[in-house]
TrEMBL record:
This is C-type cytochrome. Residues 1-20 form the signal peptide. Residues 26-58 form the Cytochrome c domain. Keywords: Heme, Iron, Metal-binding, Signal. Gene3D superfamilies: Cytochrome c-like domain. InterPro entries: Cyt_c-like_dom (IPR009056), Cyt_c-like_dom_sf (IPR036909). SUPFAM superfamilies: Cytochrome c (SSF46626). It holds the Pfam family Cytochrom_C. It comes from Methylophilus glucosoxydans. Transmembrane segments: none annotated. It comes from the Bacteria.
Amino acid sequence: MKALLLISWSLLLASHDASATEAQLQAGKKLVDTHCISCHASSYGGDGSGIYTRDYRKVRSFNGLKAQVTNCNTMLNLKWFDDEEQQVVQYLNHTYYHF
C-alpha cells in the first residue's frame, strides 16, 4: 500500500513539474524577447538568435550559460530576480543549447 501511495505521489509531482517547466519556459521566452533579442541583434545582426548557435560562442556548458545570463543581468542592470534568471537559463537551454 505504501509503495502504491509513493508511486502515485511521484506521478503527481512529475505531472506538476511538467506544467511548471512549460510555464518557466514561457516566462523565460518573454524575458528573452523583451530584453535580450534587441541587444543581440544590434551586436550580432539578424534577429539576434544566431548569437546562441554560432561556432565561436562563449557558452559551452550549463554552468557557463548560468554565468552568462547573470553577467548580462548585471551588466545591463536588468534587475532580474534569481527566479527570472533561472527562467531565462531554462528557456535558452531548452531552445538552443540542450546541455
